[in-house]
Amino acid sequence: MIDMEKLCQEVEPLLCKLDADHAFLYLFRRFGFPNIGSDDHKNVCAYAIPCEVQGTFVILKIGGTRCSIGWTATEELFNRYMEEERLMRHLPENSEFVTQCNWAIRKTLRDLLRPVFVRDVQRWIFGLQYNRELTPAKPFKSAGYGLSEDLFEDPNVLYELIDHIRDMGKGNFAVGARKVLEER
Prior knowledge:
A three-stranded antiparallel β-sheet has the order 1-2-3. A two-stranded antiparallel sheet has the order 4-5. Helices cover 41% and strands 16% of the residues. It has six helices and five strands, in the order ααβββααββαα. Strand 1 (43-50) and strand 2 (56-63) form a beta hairpin. It is α+β, with helices and mostly antiparallel strands. The chain has helices at 4-11, 20-31, 75-88, 96-111, 155-168, 173-183, and strands spanning 43-50, 56-63, 67-73, 116-118, 121-123.
């Protein structure tokens, strides 16, 4: 399987030493609100960043002072991997599947080195210093928009609303939101 520690060291040693403050500011501006849940004890939030191989994701978890990096795959992709491994008795490190996943994860990690704008200042995942040769990433569409605190007053209502919107769109949140708005 993929050795994330070795992979981080190959791609960029600094990624394994991310500071939670800088990483959160960068991820929030670049990707918006965290898109996966996190435990409420050790982590503040978590992001699943899709890779080019459909079904693979780099996972960044932000804790109180440090970040952790990992990866995951959809159940479908994992099952494909397990089937290939079963057929070959052991999936070699240079199999097409492992090579594709390694490539996609490396590319995604490298992409996190691109700066993102916060107003007129380019910010890097490590802070304000960055490689000026890298093309800045576009900020998330809703960067700068806030949410009212009362939206979170009763989390169960919010969860029901989110589930309803997702159901209305048959899994597509944007389609569901449009349908809910059309019903008003």
